[in-house]
From TrEMBL:
Further remark: The active site is a redox-active disulfide bond.
Source lineage: Bacteria, Pseudomonadati, Pseudomonadota, Alphaproteobacteria, Hyphomicrobiales
Name of protein: Dihydrolipoyl dehydrogenase
Family as reported in the entry's similarity comment: Belongs to the class-I pyridine nucleotide-disulfide oxidoreductase family.
EC number assigned by the record: 1.8.1.4
Domain Pyridine nucleotide-disulphide oxidoreductase dimerisation, first and last residues per copy: 347-456
Assigned keywords, A-Z: Disulfide bond, FAD, Flavoprotein, NAD, Nucleotide-binding, Oxidoreductase, Redox-active center
């Protein structure tokens, strides 16, 4: 087979974006995908289906609880779960087809099958008992991640589910027990809570959303509790008895002590994800892994084998689609001899609940630990005009700036549309901007983004509306 300039293994957001960028740069490119559809975890069982269900369940909740106060009278909404799942599937199909279109448009060959690296310049692609060897100048591993499992608790994707099963339940569980108060637990917990489940979240640590700013996480927990979430912090699930009609989960305090039993119809295990390198032949090819099983790379995404690179969830760093995409672009540019680069200090994180939580840069805890002197500016949505008229005043904006230089080091937002609002902070931080720069930037009125400007003004203790 004609040699390629680049073969990318995996077509998630890391892989397909890398392939497109490489093609734009004039390379002859192929992608290898073992799944029936392109798009990886994100499009098929991750970002996109979860956002479709978050949107649909939020509309259901709003129709039931928020319309009346605005004078919109509707009869009580009725859930038709199969139709909601169909809405989700239409979204998945549309996006997956979009990636197929991008492959065609950019003249990228799609090789269906499992990719195995035979060494520099050689990838074996196997499907249905047949295999072919493809020759290429460069290889990018973009094989993503898989769910982390709990020892002794078997995921059947029916009653004990991972995120994948939780995106496709065929009825609303009466009681949903979630193990892990991370992003998946809180997003998918929100979906099923809104649709009528009783949700209990068991979290090993003494807080939710580890890694997010502590003050934001605390307020977020209070808001979720108001919505009906129950949390058991500092606790772990050690066993689930599946013998009866109802599941019986054994919960133990993380610090040790007496166990208790909680009943549930469905248990969702979401305690993180692990890099996926199965069947890639990395050991035989000599591609080194780090102690956590991630493909080891240098600052140019190069692995220990010449001409083999890796990006996305399978390497170190936050397991986020946009991080994988940016790495895909950067590695394609590096292979083309350009100066591809990812700024890991400015990678936003968003939790797509209601309200949303978004964050970029350092948290207060990180700055304290690093001994950096900082100033804080905060502004609540209760003082933002647009939020007041819409009666959506939960949350606040928090800006952390260097005490000496005023450079913005971190921005954290809890509130509706926080996931959209964070990007002005990203652009500002990408350019090394200060709180003063943000405070002096004209913001349209009336918008929720004015709260970001006011928080920047509050860094200099001169917020106007507070
Ligand atoms: P993946 O998307 O995992 O793609 C890897 C691809 O490689 C897969 O298609 C797989 O089949 C293929 N593959 C693996 N091995 C081989 C092989 N040997 N041969 C051929 N093909 C192979 N991130 C966000 O940023 N925002 C979100 O809102 C968000 N929501 C999420 C919700 C859920 C429920 C989950 C589970 C994840 C979510 N994520 C989200 C994380 C996001 O999905 C991942 O960070 C992202 O998909 C990683 O992209 P990737 O390209 O590295 O790998
Ligand atoms: P996570 O790392 O976000 O959270 C896992 C949680 O489980 C942590 O709070 C951890 O302390 C807890 N935990 C670990 N072991 C436990 C145990 N034995 N008992 C109880 N709690 C335990 O992982 P999650 O939610 O599974 O998500 C996986 C990845 O997917 C994340 O890295 C995230 O970045 C990505 N993702 C991103 C989304 C987004 O950007 N909106 C949405 C969903 C997933």
């Amino acid at each position: 087979m004609a040699p390629y300039d680049l073969v990318v293994i995996g077509t998630g957001p890391g892989g397909y974006v890398c392939a497109v960028r490489a093609s734009q740069l004039g390379m002859k490119v192929a992608v290898v995908e073992k799944n029936a559809t392109l798009g990886g975890t994100c499009l098929n069982v991750g970002c996109m289906p979860s956002k479709a269900l978050l949107h649909a369940s939020e509309m259901f909740e709003e129709a039931g609880h928020s319309f009346a106060k605005m004078g919109v009278s509707v009869s009580a909404p009725k859930l038709e779960l199969p139709a909601m799942m169909n809405f989700k599937q239409q979204g998945i199909d549309g996006n997956v087809k979009g990636v197929e279109f991008l492959m065609k448009k950019n003249k990228i060959d799609v090789l269906k099958g499992t990719g195995k690296i035979l060494g520099t310049g050689k990838v074996e692609v196997s499907a249905d008992g047949k295999s072919q060897v493809v020759e290429t100048k460069n290889i990018v591993i973009a094989t993503g991640s898989d769910i982390a499992r709990l020892k002794g608790i078997e995921i059947d994707e029916k009653r004990i589910v991972s995120s994948t099963g939780a995106l496709s339940l065929d009825k609303v569980p009466g009681k949903l027990l979630i193990v892990g108060a991370g992003v998946i637990g809180l997003e998918l917990g929100s979906v099923w809570k809104r649709l009528g489940a009783d949700v209990v979240v068991v979290e090993f640590l003494d807080r939710i959303l580890p890694g997010m700013d502590g003050e934001i996480a605390k307020q977020f927990q209070r808001i979720l509790e108001k919505q009906g979430f129950a949390f058991k912090l500092g606790a772990k699930v050690t066993a689930v008895d599946t013998s009866g009609k109802t599941l019986k989960a054994t919960i133990e305090p993380a610090a040790g002590g007496a166990a208790e039993t909680l009943e549930a119809d469905v248990v969702l295990v979401c305690i993180g994800r692990v890099p996926y390198t199965e069947a890639l032949g990395l050991k035989e090819a000599g591609v080194a892994l780090d102690p956590r099983g991630r493909v080891q790379i240098d600052s140019h995404f190069a692995t220990s084998v010449k001409g083999v690179y890796a990006i996305g969830d399978v390497v170190a760093g936050p397991m986020l689609a946009h991080k994988a995409e940016d790495e895909g672009v950067a590695v394609a540019e590096i292979i083309a001899g350009q100066a591809g680069h990812v700024n890991y200090d400015v990678i936003p994180g968003v939790v797509y609940t209601t309200p949303e939580v978004s964050s970029v840069g350092k948290t207060e805890e990180e700055l304290k630990q690093a001994g950096v002197a900082y100033t804080v500016g905060k502004f609540p949505f209760t003082a933002n005009g647009r939020s007041k008229v819409n009666q959506t005043t939960d949350g606040f904006v928090k800006i952390l700036a260097d005490a000496k230089t005023d450079r913005v080091l971190g921005v954290h937002i809890i509130g509706r549309e926080a996931g959209e609002m964070i990007h002005e902070a990203c652009v500002l931080m990408e350019f090394g901007g200060s709180a003063e720069d943000l405070a002096r930037t004209c913001h349209a009125h009336p918008t929720r983004s004015e709260a970001v400007k006011e928080a920047a003004l509050a860094v200099g203790k001169r917020a106007i509306h507070m």
